[in-house]
Structure formats: structure tokens, C-alpha cells
Amino acid sequence: MKKSSHLLVTVLALAMILAACKPGTSNFQGTVTATPKIIQSSVDQTPTTTKMPEINMDPKDLSGVQITYLHPWAGESGRIMNLLVDEFNQSNEWGINVLIEQPGSTSLAIQQLRSVEIGTVSLAVLPAYELVYQDQTLNEVVDLNPFAASSKVGFSKDERADFHPVFWNENLVDGKLYGIPAEASAALMFYNATWAEELGFASLPKTSTAFRLQTCAANAIFRKDTDRFNDGLGGWIISSDADTLFSWLSVFGAIKPVVPIEKFNIDSAKKTFEYLFNLQASSCAWSGRIPEPYDYFANRQALIYSGYSQDILLQSAAFMRSGIEDVWQVMAYPGGDDTAVLTRGLAYGIFKSDAKTELASWLFIRWLSQPVNQARMLQVTGALPLGEEVMAYMSSFEENYPQWKDSLSLLSNAKMITAQANLGIIRMVLGDAGTFLFKPEFTAEGIPDLLYQLDQTIKELANRTP
């Protein structure tokens, strides 16, 4: 296992290139219908006690100001965002012009931002941890507290209160507001309730023991037939994605979502990895040859898989292709009734520049944050609503995607992984460690050393000069 440190670093370089945002496929629907309120998270909003300086520049002085906007969306979601930019350019009363930089994914956006000259990009859509990293190492990120609180150009009291606390607070680190929520997602599990009932299970698996029991039962069905080539199918589709591993680590108490992550070489992380290793060793978890899980799930080759809110749209399409009319739903990871649902998001962040460019960037963010504009993106990404007001535009979408509507009830237990400058490194190296954990040649005896190398690799990469 001493090779693992070198291999972790090697795969890490590939991970930065391969990560990408998943575009949705639905069309915007503008029907305004009242819908039930979203259940609010238990995470408290952090009050701002210090009086904010007022933004004194007059927006009327911004005519002709040009800003460069870097965003990660591609496909249909990229097209809709670019249409929004065009609308803003044509209609904003201040004469601001927005130029688009569209590399095609979050990882590519991060790469581009880290490689261009400082000052080239005015504002960008990035994970909160990358904004913290940028602020500490490369580009100074503007504190948006004064803009958001401004009586002249800020959010109204109702607009500010509408943002779901867990999404807003992800961008609030040590009192500094690094960004405004642009997109939010949750790490979820997809569960075939019809098939589970046929296997004898009337309810969701809410504990790790129940999860193992149900996935192993699904695999046992394939072992009973005469086709030996399908003996590994049926259970949970293995995922070494960082959010999947974070969620399992949270189930076993190895991480606390609102506390900065310090190390993984601890007993509870060891128990997490042993549990996952044994799931695979018992054929209750399996790796697909195709990276996307949608058709496997729709064709009853997997009882459960790990995914995100955005996967609901793609999974619905897969069931339509299959013609199978099973009832399926999304669920939290099996940590009990109060298990945390881990969320992650993208945020609009502004980089330090001159006062006119910063104000112009803020006014563009404020416009994009209007519920009607949020809805246009939401209906093609399938992400989570950032607040309640956007739901007035989502009634038809809810009808078409009932699992998406049902997933909103899980927001009552939504928690975030605390943004810290090295979280990008942690995510990539953790995913790499997960890849090693599920390799056929890996043994349970190697888990302690894998966790040790995981911590050491994170430290080594975090200490390198950007």
C-alpha cells in the first residue's frame, strides 16, 4: 500500500479534468401557481451585527461599463444562462454589458480562473470553497455583505430572507460573504420502491443494517437464476464520488457537516470504509461498466444508487425509455430519521476591481437572483430551489417530476460541508481514495494505511504553493 500516496496524486490530476456539471433537459414553464412552502433547514442564519458601509456610487454612472462573467454551465443549462445574459444586456437600465466566458464545467472554470491574469474575470460562478481559496491565494474576493445589505442597491428584506439558510450560509465564512447562491444540489439516493416491496420490504432502509439487508436481497435474486454473468447485479451501484463518501462518513459519524474537516484517519472513518468494502465483497454493491446509473436502475439491475437532485430529470427519462412503470423515489442516506442531507452549491462571486466594475457585477447578480430568472435555470438543471418565491414558477415542473417535489421535504435536514480553502483538494483526494477502496485487488487490511495516505496526501497538496 505504500504506492497509494503516489497513485493518489496521479489520479488527482485526472479528477480535476473529468468533473463536470450535468445539464438538464426540461423547458422553462412560466405558469404562476401557489405551492406549499419549503420546509426550512435547522441551520441558523448568522446575523450581521456590524453596521455595513453603504454603497454610495450611483448606478446611473455605470453606462458603458463592461464586465466579464465566467460560468460553468453547458448544454441546455448553458444555453439558458447565455439567453439570460443577452436579456440583461439588452434591457438593463444602467447600460452595463456582460461578456461571457463558458469553459463547460465547474472543474474547467476553476482551471481557467487559476490560469488567467488577475483582473481578467469580474465575477464567476464557483463553489464556495473555491472562492475562499481564491481569496487566500490568488484573487481577492469582494465581501458582498455591504452590497446585499445596501438600502440603495441591495436585496430587500424579503428578498434576503427568501434564500434558504443552508445555501446562504455556505458562502458566509468568518463573517465574510463570499458569494450569493446560484445553484444548490443535494446528495441523495435513488430507490426502487416497487421492486423493494416485491422483495418483501415495505419501507425505506433508514439504517446501514437495513440498507445492507435490502441490497443483498436484491442481489440474491440474480444469484438464483441460471445466468452466472449477472450474479453481481441487484444491489447498490458503487460510487466513489466525494459527496457519496462524505454522506457515508456522515452516517457513521466520521465527519460533522458544519465543522471543518481535519482528518480521516480515525476509527469512525475506518468503520465507514469497512462497511462499504464489505458491501462490495458480499456482492451487495457492484460497479457498472457504464458510468451513468440511469438505465441500470430503470431496468431493475440496481435497487439503489447514489446521485444528486439533478439526476431526477435524467432518471425520469430513463424510465420512459425502459417502459417499466415502477414507483421510485429519492431518499436520504441511511443514518436514521434525522440523518443529514449534505448539500453543495455554486455561488456568484465578485473579484476585487474598481468600484464601477464591482457595482455593475453586483447589479447583474441581483438581477439573476430574481425568482423568475432562478426558475428558468431550475427547470433545465433540476437543482434545488434556492428559496420559496421561485416555487411560484415551478408548478408544472413539480407535476412532471413528482420525485423532485418530494425531495424538497428532505431540506429540513439539509447540512453543508463547511467551506474551507483546501476543500477542493479534500474532495478530489477522497474520491481517489474511494476508487482504491473498490478496486478488486484491494483488501480490508489496507484500509488503515489508505486512510493514513489520504490524510498525508491532502496535507502535501495543501502545502504546495499555488
Distance between the termini: 28 Å
Task: Give me the CATH fold name of the largest domain.
Answer: D-Maltodextrin-Binding Protein, domain 2
Number of helices: 19
Shape: globular
Question: At CATH's second level, what is the architecture of the largest domain?
Answer: 3-Layer(aba) Sandwich
How many structural domains? Answer: 2
- Could you estimate the helical fraction of the residues in percent? 40-55%
What is the CATH homologous superfamily assignment of the largest domain? Periplasmic binding protein-like II
- Count the E strands: 12
Structural class: alpha/beta
Measured on Cα atoms, how large is the radius of gyration? Answer: 23 Å
Tell me the major beta sheet.
10 strands, mixed
Q: What portion of residues belong to β-strands?
A: 5-15%
Return the average pLDDT rounded to an integer: 89
The low-pLDDT segments are 1-7, 9-48
> What CATH first level of the largest domain would be assigned?
Alpha Beta
List keywords for this structure.
single chain; 466 residues; D-Maltodextrin-Binding Protein, domain 2; 2 domains; ten-stranded mixed sheet; disordered N terminus
Structural description of this entry:
It is a single chain. With 466 residues, the chain is of the alpha/beta class. The protein folds into 2 domains: 19-185 and 344-416, 3-Layer(aba) Sandwich (D-Maltodextrin-Binding Protein, domain 2), CATH 3.40.190; 187-342 and 420-462, D-Maltodextrin-Binding Protein, domain 2, CATH 3.40.190. It is built from 19 helices and 12 strands. It has helices at 4-18, 75-91, 106-115, 128-137, 145-149, 157-162, 165-169, 193-198, 208-223, 242-251, 267-281, 294-298, 311-322, 355-368, 371-381, 395-400, 402-407, 423-437, 447-462, and strands spanning 66-70, 97-101, 123-126, 172-173, 176-177, 180-192, 234-237, 285-286, 302-308, 328-331, 341-350, 414-416. Strands 1, 2, 3, 6, 7, 8, 9, 10, 11 and 12 form a 10-stranded mixed β-sheet that branches. A two-stranded antiparallel ribbon has the order 4-5. Helix 2 (75-91) links the parallel strand 1 and strand 2 (97-101). Helix 1 packs across helix 19, helix 2 runs antiparallel to helix 15 (371-381) and helix 18 (423-437) packs antiparallel against helix 19. The longest helix has 17 residues, at 75-91.
